[in-house]
Design a protein that fits this description.
single chain, 379 residues, Isopropylmalate Dehydrogenase, Rossmann fold, two-stranded antiparallel sheet, globular, binds adenosine-5'-triphosphate
């Protein structure tokens, strides 16, 4: 029997509650598909930060490197100002393990209303593939007055970058700037991922989101390398560029016309949130941060301190994220079964999660999904 070692960081607030249900769903799928999972839980989050003054100890990176995947709940707590937990846990893991893909599927689910009417014969089934390490998220920038120099440095899986920007104004001026940067290799690998994903979904088209007309240096470069990679490696498939503004407009009107949507980091952040709203909300929005070493799967929602500890959290996004994790580690049938079980639970007429207007607590909703997983096995 195949055994996987999976790390879990439940984190804070509802992160702990929804991760517990995601773990149970994976264990139920493992029973059904005859593999086993050994879980190791790590205590990182607000409590750890308040006690130790750091998000993660250095040793955590070494320890985590040995796992097959990482399941994360959410970090965030009113006792810690916004910033350190996200930067020292989420972003630190993302950059350390060079998780260069942010995968954000958005599908419509039975019984979950969508703001856009979906014709009976169509379904909303979009996958946003967002580049996760470059663009305006490089963290390169500064602010100053009149004439100033900013030293820049960044460390990525693909390179270490150093440099400086010198700015001067002809009249007294205070200014801030951020440098967006992308590399050919960074663009190639995310493009390759998006096309392979489309191929796996038996789709022949990838839409690439851009804004090359207004920001030619950065997004023109993106277009060039997306286009070259597609033509070289996927000549049998079609690439369509669409400006980010048009993409938002068209997605909001007809989201069911789209499949894989390839985005630079900043646009991907925005487009994927739009899509999670179009698909039915945060309670169903799953995500994977994927790279060539440790990949990390987490619901899109945060720790929601307002409802923490009340059993009101919807665990479906966390369970769907665990499904993405199963797909990533190679348990494709189990991954499909978890997604199916969420759909079957929502269609079953059972009490819906509180967040979706029902009365099912976090545990009851998790239980509802597990029942469907077992029922399908018995069929
Ligand atoms: P962050 O600032 O990290 O995004 P947050 O928890 O404050 O964290 P969101 O995750 O955007 O923000 O959530 C906003 C609100 O939506 C929450 O405060 C909560 O009321 C609700 N919410 C989010 N996720 C869920 C969920 N899984 N189940 C029920 N309600 C949720």
């Amino acid at each position: 029997m195949k055994t996987y070692s999976i790390a879990a960081i439940p984190g804070d607030g509802i992160g702990c509650e929804v991760t517990a249900e995601a773990v149970r769903a994976v264990d139920t799928a493992a029973e059904r598909f005859e593999f086993s999972v050994t879980w190791t839980e790590f205590p990182f989050g607000a409590e750890y930060y308040l006690k130790h003054g750091v998000g993660l100890p250095e040793s955590a990176f070494r320890e985590l490197a040995d796992f097959d995947a990482l399941l994360l709940g959410a970090v965030g707590d009113p006792r810690v100002k916004p910033g350190p937990l996200e930067q020292e846990i989420l972003l630190a893991l993302r950059f350390h393990f060079d998780q260069y893909i942010n995968l954000r599927p958005a599908s419509s689910f039975p019984g979950v209303p969508t703001p856009t009417a979906i014709p009976g014969d169509q379904a909303l089934d979009v996958a946003v593939v967002r580049e996760n390490t470059e663009d305006l998220y490089m963290g390169l920038g500064g602010a100053g007055k009149d004439s100033f120099r900013t030293d820049l440095a960044a460390k990525r899986g693909l390179y270490d970058l150093t440099g400086a920007v010198d700015l001067g104004f002809s009249t007294p001026t205070e200014a801030g700037f951020s440098l967006g940067l992308m590399t050919a290799k960074g663009i190639e690998r995310v493009t390759r991922y998006a096309f392979n994903l489309a191929r796996g979904r038996e789709e022949a088209i990838v839409h690439a989101v851009s804004k090359a007309n207004a920001v030619p240096h950065l997004y023109g470069f993106w277009d060039k390398h997306v286009g070259e990679t597609a033509a070289r490696e996927f000549p049998d498939m079609t690439l369509k560029f669409v400006n980010v503004d048009a993409a938002c407009y068209l997605l909001a009107r007809q989201p069911f016309d789209w499949g894989v949507v390839l985005c630079p980091n900043l646009f991907g952040d925005i487009v994927s949130d739009l899509l999670s709203a179009l698909a039915g909300g945060l309670g169903l929005a799953a995500a994977g941060n994927i790279g060539d070493s440790l990949s990390m799967f987490e619901p899109v929602h945060g720790s929601a301190p307002d409802i923490a500890g009340q059993g009101r959290a919807n665990p479906l996004a966390a369970i769907l994220s665990a499904g993405l994790m199963l797909d990533h580690i190679g348990e494709k049938d189990a991954a499909r079964a978890v997604e199916r079980a969420v759909r079957d639970y929502l269609a079953s007429g059972a009490e819906m999660p509180i967040e979706l207007g029902g009365a099912a607590s976090t545990e009851q909703a998790g239980q509802g999904v597990r029942e469907q997983l077992r029922k399908a096995a018995a069929r």
